[in-house]
Design goal:
mainly alpha, two-stranded parallel ribbon, 6 helices, 2 strands
């Protein structure tokens, strides 16, 4: 809404925006929370986070990717519990300013009013396989 819409308008173009509806109005997307928590966790907390979702990593550099991949494949309730558990052990809370802000309803209306298509991308960004 802030960057793409003005650039598209400058060229007379329209686009389709697919929105994860459960993260409107400022809620941080789960994978942003996961990346932030992982970055702030020490090795012991990371190992516990991997155990919690039964993720296996071949090497230390693969651990973050293995954890996020495992989180993709569990139901939303279990994913939220795993994220909450790791975040609860960290001294500093998530700083939403460091992450992309989800769109507001007003921004979505503005995009639609400008002729852009707005579609759903699910409510929780879950894998649909």
């Amino acid at each position: 809404a802030e960057h793409a819409a003005p650039a598209l308008a400058a060229h007379g173009l329209r686009a389709s925006f697919f929105v994860t509806t459960g993260f409107l109005e400022g809620r941080t997307l789960w994978f942003e929370r996961a990346a932030s928590a992982w970055a702030r966790a020490d090795e012991a907390r990371r190992a516990e986070a991997l155990r919690r979702v039964r993720a296996r990593a071949r090497a230390a550099q693969d651990a973050r990717a293995a954890w996020i991949e495992a989180l993709k494949r569990v139901d939303g309730e279990r994913r939220a519990a795993a994220l909450d558990a790791l975040e609860a052990t960290l001294s500093a809370p998530l700083d939403p300013a460091l992450h992309p802000r989800p769109l507001s309803l007003a921004q979505l209306r503005s995009l639609a009013d400008a002729g852009h298509e707005v579609g759903a991308h699910g409510s929780s960004h879950a894998l649909l396989v």
